[in-house]
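Query structure, 158 tokens:
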């Protein structure tokens, strides 16, 4: 193979790798084996976050403090707590960029979240249709599908 063909192959491979890595980073699909209790118990108050948004330790911290779940008592029976906790831990992130233990157990306090949202002004989070950084679905059109692509964002005006 000529050196020109090798260079072309390397450039095409690098371009594909870069294109795919951005796409992968924006997708965190909900695992198909999600227990019904996760949707019933967790998504009744907020979006059912894909487990890959947090590390194992962060999910353990969240699930061990449900009686003080961000100002609300989100306690569930022991069987349900174990079922949800085991599933979250099993499906927690394995990607290095998301592996940190979330400060205050909040996705929105992780360094990757802050870095990805650094251009969002504080007053935007306070808009009536958004309310807080934790309301992913307010701006990320396909958030419930685990898709957080920058090309699929629509920030509400009000």
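Result returned for the query:
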């Amino acid at each position: 193979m000529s050196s020109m063909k090798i260079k072309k192959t390397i450039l095409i491979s690098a371009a594909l790798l870069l294109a795919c890595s951005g796409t992968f980073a924006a997708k965190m699909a909900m695992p198909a084996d999600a227990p019904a209790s996760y949707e019933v118990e967790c998504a009744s108050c907020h979006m059912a976050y894909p487990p890959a948004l947090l590390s194992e330790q962060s999910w353990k911290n969240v699930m061990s403090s449900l009686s003080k779940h961000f100002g609300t008592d989100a306690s569930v029976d022991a069987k349900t707590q174990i079922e949800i906790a085991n599933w979250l831990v099993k499906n927690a992130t394995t990607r290095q960029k998301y592996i940190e233990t979330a400060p205050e157990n909040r996705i929105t306090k992780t360094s990757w979240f802050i870095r990805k949202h650094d251009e969002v002004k504080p007053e935007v989070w306070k808009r009536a249709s958004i309310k807080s950084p934790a309301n992913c679905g307010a701006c990320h059109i396909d958030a419930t599908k685990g898709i957080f692509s920058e090309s699929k964002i629509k920030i509400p005006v009000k």
